[in-house]
Amino acid sequence: MTVSRPVVFVALSLALGGGAGCSNVPTALMAGPQVAYARPYPDALAISDQVDIQARRKGTKLTLTNTTPTSFGPSTIWVNRKYSRPIPSLEVGETISVQMDEFVDEHNERFRQGGFFATRTPQEVMLTQLEATVGGEPTLIGLITVDDTEHP
Fold first, then answer.
1. φ, ψ at 87 (rounded to 5°)
2. Strand, helix or coil at 115?
3. What is the CATH number that goes with domain 32-147?
4. Nearest one of 93, 86, 99 to 58, comparing CA atoms
5. Is residue 126 classed exposed, middle or buried when 0-12, 13-18 and 19+ CB atoms within 10 A define those classes?
6. Which residues, including other chains, have CB under 8 Å from residue 73's CB and lie 6 or more apart?
7. What is the residue extent of each domain of the chain?
8. Is-contact 128 62, C-beta < 8 A?
9. Could you read off the pLDDT of 18-70 as tens digits, one per residue?
């Protein structure tokens, strides 16, 4: 009995979860390695006013520049109330850059940063916040958000 290639391809595709609506491979696993800092957005934290820290997205990077008179110790950057990435500190006058695909949500799904080889539409950066300790209390601090990336 001879089996044609299209039949074998379809059978293999369905066995691997390639059928419409059924995938056995979680998208987080396909998006990159698991990270320990994946967690839900901290809705219960107090939200402070926006401060003069600019979070500028240009292409596949997010750059933060601290022009406040305050240094921040270990903190977490939040993007769009969903994706996070910890940073060791953000000192007065310091500028740091982070790859957008290092931001993950609570399910370890990575931020769609786009780029030359991207197969999916990149996400826009609408809101950035810094989760930091202020006066001994964990707080969400609003940042000045600028997205300089062109989106199709």
1. -130, 150
2. coil
3. 2.60.40
4. 99
5. exposed
6. 89, 132, 133
7. 1-27, 32-147
8. yes
9. 444 444 444 444 456 788 999 999 999 999 989 999 999 998 899 999 999 99
From the number of C-beta atoms within 10 Å of its C-beta (0-12, 13-18, 19+), residue 113 rates as buried
Q: Tokens 């931001």: give the residue.
A: 103
What is the distance between the alpha carbons of residues 101 and 83, in angstroms, rounded to a whole number?
A: 10
CA 26, CA 152: separation in Å to the nearest integer? 26
Separation of alpha carbons 106 and 84, rounded Å: 9
List all residues 6 or more positions away from 7 whose beta carbon is below 8 Å from its beta carbon.
Answer: none
Cα separation, 110 vs 101, in Å, equals 6
Q: 14: part of which helix (H) or strand (E)?
A: helix 5-15
Place of tokens 């390639």: 18
CA distance 111 to 142: 19
pLDDT tens digits along 99-142: 999 999 999 999 887 656 556 677 899 999 999 999 899 999 99
